[in-house]
Amino acid sequence: MAKKTIIMVASGDLRIAANQTCEEAQAAMEKKLTAAIEKEGFTVQRGHAYDPVKQHGFIDSQKYGLQVFRSIPADAPLIVAEAVWQYSNHVLPGLLSHKGPILTVANWSGTWPGLVGMLNLNGCLTKAGKKYSTLWSEDFTDECFLNGLRSWLKTGTVKHKTPHVHPLEKMKVPADAAKAGKAFAQELKKNKMIMGIFDEGCMGMYNAIIPDELLHAIGVFKERLSQSALYAKMLTVSDADAQKVYDWCVARGLKFKLGTDELKDLTIKQVLTQCKMYIAAVRIADEFGCSCIGIQYQQGLKDLAPASDLVEGLLNNVERPPVYHEQTGKELFPGEALPHFNEVDECAGLDGLITYYLWRKLGQPPENTLHDIRWGRHYKGNGLDAYVWVFLISGAAPPAHFIGGYKGTSSERQPAMYFKFGGGTVKGISKPGWIVWSRVFVEAGKLKLDTGLAEVVALPQAETDDRWKLTTPQWPIMHAVLQGVSRDEMMARHKANHIQVVYANDKGSARKAMFAKAAAMKELGMQVSICGEV
User: Fold this and answer.
1) Which stretches of 181-329 are assigned E, i.e. beta strand?
2) Which residue, 96, 129, 366, 425, is most buried by CB atoms nearer than 10 A?
3) 276 pLDDT more than 80
């Protein structure tokens, strides 16, 4: 590139407490990244200053992002550096009109975490059809990162190898799986389903919004609902009904880690409010005929009520507290989960909806959830020598996924940095076994699916505790070994911060179910890729 000055920007959270807490980690990351760039003979200029009043240096709103980009030369080489979770809409408007080469960069850390934020931004740019390059590193001194950086500084692009990606058309699909998947898809198109959306577009995740016309072609239609309606419905739920939900959970072995300080602890008041939210969500889903729902909760609802994580984990479990119709007393959705997509990620919602009902037909355990692709590191010991990912989400994972089920499940207070009214999570360690992972995403105006196999492994408690300590100890954790997909291949290809996971009875049935799902998605019009060794 002719220009020797690189503009660096950093997108952050909307919540000031999160930005203040993460400022130190972001500054440390930028210092290392800047040193690597300067060593190559380039100069780094930050596109926006540290704000001494706010006590952080992040772009913290779409409004501020537009202001920042007005002062950045349109053809300047630009780096978006992320050591934290960020709201992509803060920088997306400026990036879409930027003419110069764009590079997204994340540190390899699970603590705040930058790689999750970067993956979301990458997914948003992909959906928008905006060209960009991407890199990641633990300390910005390794040769893989430096070679990529040199390529971008010289040519404005970085190319990553993705030999693990195989178009479905080139795969040998088992005949019975193909038949089952195709029949399921045709039935879905005929009968149609409704997806309940409690306020669209959580945390600026443009990549998580599926255009209606793409859904309509599949036979799925959005019912746009309001979180205010959910809150209003909560006010109609009796204290006695909320207590019954709580008692049911305790009887099944779910452990609530309760205290008395509303500002710091998980309290019985918070949990009972969550129980009311659970009942209200099921009743609204029944009223509008929703086959799955997604609650935004990170904005708006968090200013009124405790977090929805306990609600989401219960909804995603087939065995869950019964909910009854307000007037007739009829049990709603008996013997069924009500699939919920955390943070109203519609790509995960569509995936989860199809997975749940297809797995039911295949005789496989249908509980599924999204997780953040939070972080990972190599582990050697106890007969294992592999790169083990940390899949982690704020609480939507169903207890059926955990060792011990409800008895292996606890609920802890969401960090006050994000949720001033608290609320409990659904925490557990995912049981060893085989899973099918996947991601629906939008690219070039089309729905696409990547899917593959992974083994959930058991790690020593000390290793699990250390991984929790380095990420978020209140959240459920899954130790996943992707089959035939390296760390860097996954990062180069994946178009989202989220990944969908569902168990199967064994490796063989996981493979067949994966191909059935791939066949169903293809029949529904998606472009499907099988990733890794299957």
Assistant:
1) 193-198, 220-225, 255-256, 292-295
2) 425
3) yes
